[in-house]
Design goal:
About 55% of the residues lie in helices and about 10% in strands. By secondary structure, the chain is of the alpha+beta class. The protein is globular and about 50 Å long. It binds glutathione (GSH). Glutathione binds near residues 19, 42 and 57.
Length: about 230
């Protein structure tokens, strides 16, 4: 039975913009596993509630259900050991956990303040009120105010990426000579941004930008072939 997962979609069902679901797409592609990505909107909580989650991704593989992108990556690694590894040899999984924490603590919140009002323009009409109310509560201000100073705020974001930049100056991928799930974790964040906003996060000569382009090329250009802004 084909693996399926619930995948955040916008007004255009082809616009899939969750950073966490993009991590999963890269993981499934790296494992060479066929999958169906079922479009899901923020307000369709009832669809995933039976799986014990109120967030996507939720993966359904036969009778196995796994929620949370990190838990799903671990599941795929353990359930499909004969496929290419997502983490590399030990302690690859443990180190990828650090990258996951860095991405969730630094990269996702950094990008959110730069594109959150743009997300409002691409989401499904049914999700609009929920998205605005939940995110304005989270930021303590309107979406427009949260994003208003992005031309200056982007400098601090770029500075926060310096650990990535140092690594990517020395090697083509975070995992070394070839990408692993650590690369997918961070790329999911950048793919989220390009699916929702034309705002330029990285300067053209940034090694992180060169790496982002390499990630866009992976798996036959999988991430380039979706509605996005660049
Ligand atoms: N830690 C979770 C985070 C998942 C998450 O936050 N997903 C968002 C979509 S990007 C979501 O479903 N949000 C539902 C909501 O905001 O109500 C993971 O890694 O999968």
């Amino acid at each position: 039975m084909t693996i399926r997962f619930y995948d955040l979609a916008g007004a255009d069902p082809a616009r899939r913009f969750s950073p966490y679901c993009w991590r999963l797409r890269y993981a499934l592609a790296a494992k060479g596993l066929a999958f169906e990505a079922v479009p899901w909107r923020f307000t369709e909580k009832d669809v995933i509630a039976p799986f014990g989650s109120d967030k996507v991704p939720v993966l359904v593989d036969g009778d196995r259900v796994v929620a949370d992108s990190w838990a799903i990556a671990e599941y795929l690694e353990d359930a499909y050991p004969d496929r290419p590894s997502l983490f590399g040899a030990d302690p690859g999984r443990a180190l990828a956990r650090f990258v996951n924490a860095f991405a969730d603590a630094v990269v996702v919140p950094g990008i959110a303040r730069l594109v959150v009002a743009d997300i409002d323009a691409v989401i499904d009409e049914r999700d609009r009120a929920y998205f605005r109310a939940s995110r304005e509560k989270r930021f303590g201000m309107t979406l427009e105010a949260a994003q208003a100073d992005r031309d200056t705020r982007v400098e601090a974001f770029r500075q926060a990426l310096h650990p990535l930049r140092m690594v990517l100056r020395a090697q083509p991928f975070l995992a070394g000579g070839a990408p692993l799930y650590a690369d997918a974790i961070v790329m999911g964040c950048f793919q989220w941004a390009r699916c929702v906003s034309p705002f330029r996060l990285l300067e053209a000569d940034d090694p992180v930008e060169a790496w982002r382009q390499r990630m866009l090329d992976l798996h036959g250009g999988m991430a380039r072939q979706v509605p996005a802004f660049d």
